[in-house]
């Protein structure tokens, strides 16, 4: 495993270790027992079918076969889960700070009204303040909304950062997202804290006022250069149709913080768009950033983040280096994925929004197989994985960058060129290169394609969450199914949509039937195992219960709607689209949420199947009881 390196000492000091959780063998044994029970059940159905073929017996066989298949796919997660640990303190034996690879961070935003610019600014500030050599750090913001408001917000952020970064460094602040830091009411308050807080509040109010009024006050624009940036928003400029806008807001080696230390690069990018050309949503935005960053910094390591996610641990890139710089590491390692962990979830997680299975349990189970899927955010990639399979020797060309300023006319010209909406026409972007197109879940699809090429990944799940995303309230959890299958793990995600089918079958069988007890075993066994899994990952009973409820609701609503939507799209009946989730917090709604109240306020067709099923269950319960008590009479 880990270790190896420059000095003799490093031979015995591992950079990382991995272990099998204790309960794995119990899970394996249980899987065998459970498999036998399923086989017995299918055999029973089969016999029944030979005896008398009715529609009901056929349906039973079909339903249980689907269930059995779902069960089998879910077992892949349980066979060899992995718990990893890294040792940042051993990194010094392997590499000097000056040998660390450069890191380009990509942050995506798409709509200033659904994704408040101040929250994107917080995302950026939290990573700009990473404990990483500043001259090796660059942050690129992709604005698919093509909004002056976002650019304006980032101009303020660039100025605030010159105070925030040295403040964090000097006082060794752990919480480097300003909003989270000031909200947490830090116990140790430093002398400059009040002043910094005031600066932050001023910036926040300015940005929020601008978003509300739609007017950008020129009083807060400091330089002629900044003012000129807005000239590009001409009359015909819309979010769907405009030329590329790239603005370097901070340049490493030129811009300094208030202590005289250099700042990291901060670049605003709004790729060119045309209503006549597909823009391929987030995957398209990320690919534009891949190319723009290549003309400026071309860092060998890339981190992608969504606008609702912030860094919660400044040492995260060092954790990643424990894998990337390990000389004995598999050269096929493509990316290191961190879980999505939500903050501000109410105590019992009433909507089951935490999605522990998807973001924590499953990636842990996939880790040693070929690695976890890419979760769309919180993934550190090697740049080269986007340009070929592991056997190809990709050379990261750095010489064209030379010592030229990223603000030089030459570099800006090539950056604008590669961000143009026509650049990808007739190219391999999205098919062989970059993030892959053709699926709305570009994350899962891209990692699936990369793993097909032979790349691998690692799941890094430190105790202190590396990143925290905001939970979108009332988000219909529509899962769009991708049309390719990848081993059992990917099968599992594909048939998630079928989950809606299975819940009702159990209720049809009579207690008098001895096979009923097999059902009881299968049913309770699965639930108990799921429950134990949940508790082992730190959940509570109440959370688990709410999760089960949410799973039922999603099966009937999001998953089945998603499956229908996918079908319509595949047949070309409905168009392909992506709705950006709104991250705007409604005070009233969030108050109700924190009190644990269910929200039924939003009108949605999703409630139709839900209400129907509830009524049907309500009605069939007394009827079922009535008929079974009648049938017991001689
Ligand atoms: O045309 C677009 C659409 C979206 N986005 C960005 O994509 C991110 C994710 O969008 P969001 O509306 O938050 O979607 P979610 O459903 O919450 O996203 C989940 O699912 C997506 C698709 O699988 C993943 O990309 C995300 O990382 C994952 O959090 C956001 O930062 C958006 O700004 C763009 O940049 N351009
Ligand atoms: Mn999101």
Automatic annotation (TrEMBL):
InterPro entries, sorted: Cellulose_synth (IPR005150), Nucleotide-diphossugar_trans (IPR029044)
Q: Which domain of life is it from?
A: Eukaryota
Pfam annotation, one family: Cellulose_synt
Q: Where does Mn(2+) bind?
A: 282, 306
Report the membrane topology from the UniProt record: Multi-pass membrane protein
User: Entry's Gene3D superfamilies?
Assistant: Spore Coat Polysaccharide Biosynthesis Protein SpsA, Chain A
Q: Which SUPFAM superfamilies match?
A: Nucleotide-diphospho-sugar transferases
Single GO MF annotation? cellulose synthase activity
| A biological process from GO | cellulose biosynthetic process
Q: This protein is called what?
A: Cellulose synthase-like protein G3
What organism is the protein native to?
Vitis vinifera (Grape)
């Amino acid at each position: 495993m880990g270790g190896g390196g420059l000095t003799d000492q490093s031979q015995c000091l591992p950079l990382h270790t991995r272990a099998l959780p204790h309960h794995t063998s119990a899970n394996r044994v249980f899987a065998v027992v459970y498999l036998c029970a399923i086989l017995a059940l299918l055999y029973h159905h089969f016999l029944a079918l030979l005896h008398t073929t009715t529609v009901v017996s056929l349906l039973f066989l079909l339903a249980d076969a689907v269930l059995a298949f779902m069960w089998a796919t879910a077992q892949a997660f349980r066979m060899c889960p992995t718990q990893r640990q890294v040792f940042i303190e051993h990194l010094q034996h392997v590499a000097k700070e000056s040998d660390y690879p450069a890191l380009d961070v990509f942050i995506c935003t798409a709509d200033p009204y659904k994704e408040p610019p101040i929250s994107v600014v917080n995302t950026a500030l939290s990573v700009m303040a990473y404990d990483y050599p500043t001259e090796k750090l660059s942050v690129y913001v992709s604005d698919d909304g093509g909004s002056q408001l976002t650019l304006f917000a980032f101009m303020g952020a660039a100025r605030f950062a010159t105070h925030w970064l040295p403040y964090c460094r000097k006082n060794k602040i752990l919480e480097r997202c300003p909003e989270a830091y000031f909200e947490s009411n830090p116990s140790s308050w430093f002398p400059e804290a009040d002043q910094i807080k005031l600066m932050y509040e001023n910036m926040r109010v300015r940005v929020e006022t601008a978003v509300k009024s739609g007017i950008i006050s020129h009083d807060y624009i400091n330089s002629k250069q900044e003012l000129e940036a807005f000239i590009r928003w001409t009359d015909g400029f819309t979010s769907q149709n405009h030329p590329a806008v790239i603005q370097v807001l901070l340049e490493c080696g030129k811009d300094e913080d208030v202590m005289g230390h250099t700042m990291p690069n901060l670049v605003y990018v709004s790729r060119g768009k045309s209503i006549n050309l597909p823009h391929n949503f987030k995957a398209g935005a990320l690919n534009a950033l891949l190319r723009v960053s290549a003309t400026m910094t071309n860092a060998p390591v890339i981190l992608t983040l969504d606008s609702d996610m912030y860094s919660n641990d400044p040492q995260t890139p060092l954790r990643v280096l424990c894998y990337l710089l390990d000389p004995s590491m598999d050269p096929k390692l493509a990316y290191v994925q961190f879980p999505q962990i939500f903050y501000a979830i109410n105590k019992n997680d009433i909507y089951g929004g935490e999605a522990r299975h998807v973001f924590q349990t499953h990636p842990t189970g996939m880790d040693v197989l070929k690695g976890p899927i890419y979760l769309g955010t919180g993934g550190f990639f090697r740049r080269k994985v986007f340009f070929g399979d592991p056997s190809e020797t990709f050379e990261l060309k750095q010489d064209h960058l030379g010592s030229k300023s990223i603000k030089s006319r030459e570099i800006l010209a090539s950056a604008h060129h590669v961000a143009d909406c026509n650049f990808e026409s007739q190219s391999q972007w999205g098919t062989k290169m970059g993030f892959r197109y053709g699926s709305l879940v570009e994350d899962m699809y891209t990692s699936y394609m990369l793993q097909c090429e032979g790349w691998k990944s690692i799941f890094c799940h430190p105790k202190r969450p590396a990143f925290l995303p905001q939970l979108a309230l009332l988000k219909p959890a529509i899962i769009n199914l991708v049309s390719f299958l990848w081993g059992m793990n990917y099968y599992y995600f594909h048939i998630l949509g079928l989950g809606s089918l299975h819940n009702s079958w159990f209720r049809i069988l009579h207690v008098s039937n001895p096979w009923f007890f097999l059902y009881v075993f299968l049913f309770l066994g699965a639930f108990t195992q799921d429950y134990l899994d949940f508790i082992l990952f730190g959940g509570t009973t109440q959370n688990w219960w709410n999760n089960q409820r949410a799973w039922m609701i999603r099966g009937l609503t999001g998953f089945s709607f998603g499956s229908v939507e996918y079908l319509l799209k595949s047949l070309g009946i409905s168009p392909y689209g992506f709705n950006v989730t709104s991250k705007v917090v409604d005070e009233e709604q969030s108050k109700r949420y924190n009190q644990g109240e269910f929200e039924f306020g939003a009108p949605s067709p999703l409630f139709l199947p839900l209400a129907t099923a509830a009524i049907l269950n309500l009605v069939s319960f007394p009827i079922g009881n009535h008929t079974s008590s009648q049938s017991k009479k001689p």
